Fold this protein.
Amino acid sequence: MGLSLTKILYMCIISVMNIIEIKNLTKKYEKITVVDDISLSIQKGEIFGLLGPNGAGKTTTLMMLSTLLKPSSGSAVINGFDVLKNPLEVRDSIGMVFQDPSSDTVLTAYENLKLHALLYDVPMKEIDARIEKVMTLVELNGKKHDIVKKYSGGMRRRMEIARGLLHEPGIFFLDEPTIGLDPQTREHIWQYIESLSRNNGMTIILTTHYMEEAEKLCNRIAIIDHGKIIALDSPKNLIASLGGDIVVLRGADAYIDENKLSFKVQAKKLDGCLKITLKDMNKNLQELLNNAKSVEAVEVHSANLNDVFLHYTGRDIRDENGEEETDDED
Amino acid sequence: MRIKKTLKGLYAMWYREFKVFQREKSRVISSLFLPLLWFFIFGGSMGSMTTMGDNYKIFIFPGFLVMTIIFASMFNGAYIVWDKKVDFLKEVLIAPHSRSVAFFGKTLGGMTDCLLQSYILMFIGIFLKIPYTPVSFLLSMFLLFALAIGLVGMGLILGSFMDSPEGFGLISSLVVYPLFLFSGALYPLDKLPAWLKIITHIDPATYAVDGLRNVILGTSTHSFLFNLAVIACFDIFFVIAGTWAFKRMKL
């Protein structure tokens, strides 16, 4: 009786507490600070996104949360366990899908999953049934006895997502889950992730540098740049915080005579164009254009997360990406 | 519960190594081909120069049992570099097990790999007229088992320090061949020049070759038990060093 009571109490505490609590987390390599004093808390059942350009420190953060990297300073508590003091319990609570494929290509998908099930102490009798369940979820059950070498990139990613789910973790880390995938597969994976959170109450933390992904999937987003959190809120609030829509004036010498405007605008010069955040687009666009000089073309769109990133950093999130595949974070 | 979990983890690691071994049959064939080549060509030709004649081939045969283990264990260790490259190592290290479980699992897998190859060669030895007795056969198997623990551990340590496949060649010329050539596999230990004698005594493979000669041929420098004891010390050292190396290994 006493035991069960403490257990219930413990579960209550866990459910009220944040499932992930990060305080002043920092990772330094000699002189370079990759993750710079990050603090945040994530609630149970949330889909939380770390959004930022490549090299911003997203992967390094996940590696520290999953105990594969030791923080230089700061702490992280996951599911009630400290990453430094109880790494085994932390690893027991999480599932992870790495950015780069991490399955053995000599083995079949089934063998890769069985290996995983054994490593995570899934009961022997349940292994086959669970493999079938997760492989059906990612629509690969028919191909589970194929050698992984024969899989396409998208199939392999889906297989690795299935593998991460095999031991039914309460917390799921996904590092760039849809990088390099075709739009159809991407859409598919988004659906899985949403249903996992909705149906299983799973807490999901994903990193991405795709705006649409972060905007569509995440309850909350932390925008990260140079290892620092520069903004943290729901995608809706982040976009709303800009307070307007975006007008892009193309032309190397494009400028706005701001003194003549009856309203205030924020204008940023960005390679060969002028990006302006404008309130009340319908009312003010005409006046804005009347006071614009040397404009070659005009583009108008409703604000998105890329504009939020630009607002906080003065840079475009896509600036540094170049090729999507080339990513060296650690 | 913890024990059961750990055993399952070890089984998982072994399961993977064994499956890979099963798929790469060419590795097994090449691992048997090389010693046989040495046995017939080197054994036959050198034997004709010495007073031992055909007996020379028999004399150097235990060396090839050891050679298969040296080769297989070092390349098994270097395979970690591949695991790092394809990121498979992350999958293992993120599992809820300590690094020592990862090390022991890999050791078990590597040992299976090495010993299967060495035992197959031992079996082929029956057709090469190696004078086994049932007892010497079993004792030899046991000695090879003991040797495999330490050498696989040593291979894994080297692998854990390596970052790129370029180190493969280095391991082969600086570790694999010296271990084999200094082991006395090809020559008797008694009449060596002093400098060579010292080096042969640091080489753990020496004691395996000597121990095997003791049980199979009845001629040796040291007793079987002495050889076994030295190998056991060597095993203990490399198991401890290996767990340490895995704990400090970075991805």
Remarks:
- The two ends of chain B are 29 Å apart (CA to CA).
